[in-house]
């Protein structure tokens, strides 16, 4: 079984770090600036994506940044029911939170030595997109750490990540579609395209490690 090139893993790592921060950090000016610095390490097809270009424009305009935050809340947070629900379970079962997927992803986190702390769990279940992206980032980080020195461990981690992607990220497509269709700002339309680009890239990269 092949070992992914380190540059390939690093790109996944940076994109996952970027995406998870969008959902786990407040999009205030300082945090927003820090998030954008990660884009400098992306491969060209990610770095030159319209979503990144639009974010760079917004970063220099306080009014646009306020609009971005307002629309983020309208789409993903509330107080009314979000237009694009950021929880895996809501795309299955009875379209409610805390479904089967919540507990399935928790098992993946546990196997990786991760857990959602009680304070966060009160606000977001385990299958919140920010947590799923954080898990994917964590797996890429560990894969990179073992890529040179422990092929067996690397393959074990790659297989776990491939399994998670297969079982628990296909809903990203529906989430991206909901985001693009519901938004009033073009930047969030581009976000849906960017998320799909990331997902398709991971499916291809992890195909050699998939058990299917």
Write the topology of this structure.
Blueprint: H1 6-24, H2 29-37, H3 44-47, H4 50-58, H5 62-77, H6 100-111, H7 118-121, H8 129-146, H9 151-168, H10 171-182, H11 186-206
Helix pairs in contact: 1-8, 1-11, 4-11, 8-9, 9-11, 10-11
Brief summary:
The chain is an all-alpha fold and 212 residues long. It has 11 helices and no strands.
Could you explain the architecture of this structure?
By secondary structure, the chain is mainly alpha-helical. It has one domain (6-209): TorD-like (Orthogonal Bundle), CATH 1.10.3480.10. The chain is 67% helix and 0% strand. It contains 11 helices and no strands. Helix 1 (6-24) packs antiparallel against helix 8 (129-146), helix 8 (129-146) runs antiparallel to helix 9 (151-168) and helix 10 (171-182) runs antiparallel to helix 11. The radius of gyration is 17 Å and the shape is globular. The mean pLDDT is 92.
Q: What is the oligomer described by this structure?
A: single chain
- Kindly provide the radius of gyration, computed on alpha-carbon positions and rounded to a whole number of angstroms: 17 Å
Q: Name the CATH class.
A: Mainly Alpha
User: What CATH architecture do you see?
Assistant: Orthogonal Bundle
Distance between the termini: 14 Å
The rough form would be described as globular
The biggest sheet amounts to: none
Which regions contain 5 or more consecutive residues with pLDDT less than 50? none
CATH superfamily: TorD-like
Estimate what percentage of residues fall within beta strands: under 5%
Order of helices and strands: HHHHHHHHHHH
Q: Fraction of residues in helices?
A: 55-70%
Number of strands: 0
- Average of the residue pLDDT scores: 92
CATH fold label: TorD-like
Protein name: Molecular chaperone TorD family protein
Pfam family, one: Nitrate_red_del
Keywords: Chaperone
Organism: Campylobacter gastrosuis
